[in-house]
Amino acid sequence: MTKVTSIPLYAQIKSSILSRIVAKEWGPGSFLPSETALAAEYGVSQGTLRKALNELALEKKLVRFQGKGTAVAVLDSDGALFPFFRLYDDDGKRVYPLSQMTSTQHDMAKKEEAIALGIEDGDAIIRIHRIRVLDEQPVINEFILLPSKRFPGFPCDLNKLPNTLYEYYFQQFDILIAKATESLQAVMSDPLDMKSLRLSEVSPLLEIRRKAFDIDGKVVEIRRSRVLTSHHCYHTDL
Fold this sequence. Notes:
- The protein is of the alpha+beta class.
- 24% of the residues lie in helices and 33% in strands.
- It is globular.
């Protein structure tokens, strides 16, 4: 591995391990080589290697088992690998809505969409509209944009798309979502929100705008979620 002096060595190793996970050298649930073996492979001390592994474990991308070793986290509906969903009920319990896809279509990017996705104006994109449901009650009206060139053959058949899209990106397109940024704003429901969320009157919603990035820092997805928070809250730890 080429050492870049401006980037800490442990961070280079962390990035390399993530790249190898994306390349499916180690699949979900499989164990990495021992710390001794990996440290020797990278030509670093075990302390440096351990720092990289510990950061990946804190980010829920690896799981450390005392006396057994380190394994790649298993992607599941609770977001074990990608802890980006932060909706909680009134009792403080984290909740995971199910998704009801309403439409998936291929389209051309508008100027502002192209800028946000880092593509050219008019490039092909994929638009997804879905409603997320808790206890049979719609709570999120969600709109997702993807650059088509990153997702060749992306299906328009709604039945082929799972509840956890980040898992799908990884398994079908080798795209690992490594981080996301979000902005939150209070908004009022529009006519589409009222229809999608079964609202009888105009109601306040929490709009969450998210950009998701791969391990190279490239934008993979833009997501706009309009959340009904009458019985739920958005929680984050700082």
